[in-house]
Design brief:
- The protein is α+β, with helices and mostly antiparallel strands.
- It has 2 domains: about 270 residues, Alpha-Beta Complex (Ribonuclease Rh, Chain A), CATH 3.90.730; about 110 residues.
- Helix content is about 20%, strand content about 25%.
- It is built from 7 helices and 19 strands.
- The strands form 4 sheets. Strands 9, 10, 11, 12, 13, 14, 15, 18 and 19 form a 9-stranded antiparallel beta sheet that branches.
- This is Ribonuclease T2-like.
- GO terms for molecular function: hydrolase activity; ribonuclease T2 activity; RNA binding.
- Its main location: cytoplasm.
- Pfam families: Ribonuclease_T2 (PF00445), RNaseT2L_C (PF25488).
Length: about 400
């Protein structure tokens, strides 16, 4: 398949506007499935097979004791090979400063969930961007209208964070009885079944030389640009799992709770709807639209994209939980989310391991995506904008 950018001549004249603004046609081909030339601002090529990779570090431990952490977002070729370090002129060495200025909420999340085991997060982020991010064709500066230096790096980190938030590996494994333990071991088939039942496709499961579970690779093809396209789960390509079939250790992170179970556990497939997870403690409610984190819920229960995220307190209530902000209890009233001192009875929500749910559905809505100082009401009834809400524990 010999693809090339079509930002040339007469063909470009009719195609450039959409490509340059990274607004791609709804009929854009799915990466790794196209057989004709197409604008590489709307079709990632040659790295059309995207991997969201996660770490489980225990020695030394990184990140929360009840969460995996981000390794990176990698654009592999469709056969498992890959390019690396594709543009040294954009191998930025000030990722923290870039994100502080353009995406502070993304940076805040990364400081908890995208950690370097040596303690040098900045160097780790620079490495992931320089080695992998610069090889994503849709992130090239030429794909932007009125391009501002480094904005493609902001898109890379924001997309990686948003994708990671849809893949709660710890919760998915825990729901299947696979929990960190200093004594238990697990089978590869049990781990694979627990993840596949939620993700929909096989996941690459990796272990170190001591049979310790330490990395997961989730595979995607993308329709449209990596920035705003539709990520579709895909079968793995390239190297397979490095774990043995049995005797896999899933060690607890030092300082976290250790759960001791039987020596070897198996699992059965369980639907997400049947394994709701009551939330508790403090956290943020991040909004996801089109697979990308787009602002968060603030204290009144409205959606905001340019302010500071509010801290919510989740309190277990039966099989679900209630939410409270600094404004008061949160409830669904007249099909709208509101948090206020006037709310006398808090609504009981659920969590499916990935998204907040109400009435058995994870779908929420708004009349428009807010911008600037505008806030949007979040509805449970259908509106023009569809969104989902994730929980980020503090």
């Amino acid at each position: 398949m010999a693809l090339r950018s079509l930002l040339l001549g007469a063909v470009a004249a009719g195609h450039l506007a959409a490509a340059a603004s990274v607004t791609c046609s709804a009929s854009a081909p799915l990466s790794c499935h196209n057989t004709t030339s197409y604008d590489t601002c709307c079709l990632n090529y040659p790295g059309g097979h995207l991997l969201l990779t996660q770490f489980w570090d225990t020695n030394p431990a990184t990140g929360p004791s009840n969460s995996w952490t981000i390794h990176g977002l990698w654009p592999d070729h469709c056969d498992g090979t890959y390019d690396s370090s594709c543009d040294s002129s954009r191998a930025y060495t000030n990722i923290t400063q870039i994100l502080q200025a353009a995406a502070p909420s993304t940076l805040q999340y990364m400081q908890t969930y995208w950690k370097d085991y040596t303690g040098n997060d900045e160097t780790f982020w620079e490495h992931e961007w320089g080695k992998h991010g610069t090889c994503i064709s849709t992130l090239k500066p030429s794909c932007y209208t009125n391009y501002q230096p480094t904005q493609e790096a902001v898109d890379f980190f924001s997309k990686t964070v948003a994708l990671f938030q849809t893949l709660p590996s710890y919760s998915w494994l825990s729901a299947a009885g696979i929990v960190p333990s200093s004594t238990a071991t697990y089978t590869l088939s049990a781990i694979q079944s627990a993840l596949t039942s939620r993700f929909g496709y096989a996941v690459t499961i990796n272990c170190n030389s001591n049979k310790e579970l330490n990395e997961l690779w989730y595979h995607y093809n993308v329709q449209g640009s990596v920035q705003s396209g539709n990520f579709q789960p895909a079968d793995p390509v390239g190297s397979g799992s490095t774990c043995p079939s049995t005797g896999i250790k899933y060690l607890p992170k030092p300082g976290g709770a250790t759960t001791t179970t039987a020596t070897t556990l198996t699992t059965t497939t369980t639907s997400a709807a049947a394994t709701g997870t009551p939330l508790s403690g403090k956290g943020y409610l991040n909004v996801v639209t089109g697979g990308t984190q787009t602002g968060c819920i603030i204290s009144a229960g409205t959606w905001y994209t340019s302010g500071t995220c509010a801290t919510f307190t989740a309190t277990a209530s039966g099989s679900g939980f209630t939410l409270t902000s600094s404004k008061g209890k949160c409830a669904i009233s007249s099909n709208a989310l509101t948090c206020a001192s006037s709310v006398t009875t808090a609504t009981v929500f659920s969590y499916d391991g990935t998204y907040l749910t109400y009435g058995g559905s994870s779908s929420f809505y708004a009349t428009a995506v807010p911008s600037g100082t505008t806030q949007s009401t979040v509805y449970t009834s259908s509106q023009s904008v569809s969104l989902k809400i994730t929980w980020q524990a503090q």
